[in-house]
Amino acid sequence: MILYDAFFAALAALGFAIIFNVPKKFLIFVAIGAIIGFSAKSLLVHNGIGVELSTLLGAILVGTMGKIFSTIFQKPHQIITIASVIPMVPGTFAFKTIISLLDFVSSPIPSYELLAQTTFYAAKTGFILAAIAFGVAAPALLKK
Amino acid sequence: MEKMELSRDELKKIADTSLLIGKTMLESGAEVCIVDESLSRLVRIFGCDKVNLSVLPQTISMTLVSKNEFRTKIMHIGALSPNMQMLSELYTLSKNVCTGCGPADVLQHTNDLLSHNQQYTPLHKIFAAAVACAGFAALFHGSYKDIGAAFIATFLAASLKKLLDYKGFNPLFSITVASFLATICISLFLSGGLLEDSKIALASSVLFLVPGVQLINTFEDIIKGHYLSGLARGLHGLLISFAIVFGIAVGLKIFGSGV
Questions:
Q1: Same domain, B106 and B162
Q2: Domain regions of chain A by residue span
Q3: Among A14, A124, B113, B250, which one is most buried in terms of CB atoms within 10 A?
Q4: Among B88, B203, B259, beta carbon nearest to A91
Q5: Would you say residue B3 lies in a domain?
Q6: What percent of chain A has pLDDT over 70?
Q7: How close A9 gets to chain B, by Cα (Å)?
């Protein structure tokens, strides 16, 4: 399953790399970054670590790889890191937030259960997105 | 060797060239620190003593100092359109400019880069978006039907978005319409019996609209003290997310009773 996930994470990242016009010679690094980041996240989640912390650690790995890439090739790390972390975007949580919110708004009477569900999914989505952004930026922020 | 004082005219040429490079880097998805670093290096090679750069959400301003002479110029920054090839080339250009190169040579090189700034055709990008979203459907452990539906819905939505962008529509409008079209497509697959459950296909098919560059740059800019620029990018990312949600919500209200 990890290999299956890694393959499709690389595919999704390569798609975004083309959308972001990443130079062809760096596409391989985008794929490697996505495989490392997503596999690390999946492994940690399978071992019972929370999805937010797992995502943060996966994103830090991608950020570290970006920092090494930046040092070797003398290019900004964003060239590979942004597309590499996109597969970690919490699409299903974001979608559940939207559906719960729509159900809550269309409900004829206020439902606290729906409100709690919406808040839960929104918080999960927000924390995972923050973990991705902070994780990627963290290695580049070690120096002033 | 002591530097010579640059005239106001020379400072103007340097400012024009540097601001064009800075503006293009920001529009391509660079964070403020990289632009600051690149332009500071560039203007020193051109012979300036000091540069003060300020990046606001819509403008980039620069004051160049050479001995007793100085010049301040401001340039408008356009909409963000992620282009890592351009960012990479301009960053390298700012590193590799040799001493003795004038701003006119660099301006010429920058204009050459601007005229050949895309290495993938629009069709490549649409296809890539469809493959990426199909990849997401697989990552969410969807069936082959989900993956196929996500591919088709994204291909149509990304094509429409490209068309609307080309026709000059507001980007937020084109994002809303694209997510609306993706929702309609998935709802039609569901009502036609081609899908048993539409959640995975629908969640995947709008992900090509995710504001990834804004998300990452917001954090870096804020943490490095560029609060205004960072918050503005974050707000823009939030608006894009609202546009996606709005498109899905309208689509589901009209067509998605079974979702």
A1: no
A2: 2-141
A3: A14
A4: B203
A5: no
A6: 99
A7: 7
Of A91, A98, A101, the CB nearest to B207: A91
Number of domains in chain B: 2
Residues of B in contact with A140 (CB under 8 A): 220
- Regarding whether B92 and B126 lie in a shared domain, the answer is no
* Partner residues linked to B214 by β-bridges: none
Q: Does A79 touch chain B (CB under 8 A)?
A: yes
Range of the domain at B161: 122-255
- Whether the ipTM is more than 0.85: the answer is yes
The tens digit of pLDDT for each residue in B165-185 reads 999 999 999 999 999 999 999
Contact B94, B42 (CB under 8 A): yes
Q: Torsion-angle region of residue A52: left (phi > 0), alpha (psi -120 to 50) or beta?
A: alpha
**Which pTM value belongs to this model?**
0.90
CB hemisphere CA count around A73 (13 angstroms) = 19
Closest among A144, A1, A20 to A78, alpha carbons compared: A20
* Residues of chain B contacting residue A92, judged by C-beta atoms under 8 Å apart: 140, 199-200, 203
Q: Which chain B residues have a beta carbon less than 8 Å from that of A22?
A: 84-85
Cβ within 8 Å, pair B119-A21: yes
Q: For residue range A104-132, list pLDDT tens digits in order.
A: 888 888 888 889 999 999 999 999 999 99
Same domain, yes or no: B241 and B138: yes
Same-domain status, B93 and B150: no
* Digit-coded pLDDT (tens) for B2-27: 667 778 888 888 888 889 999 999 99
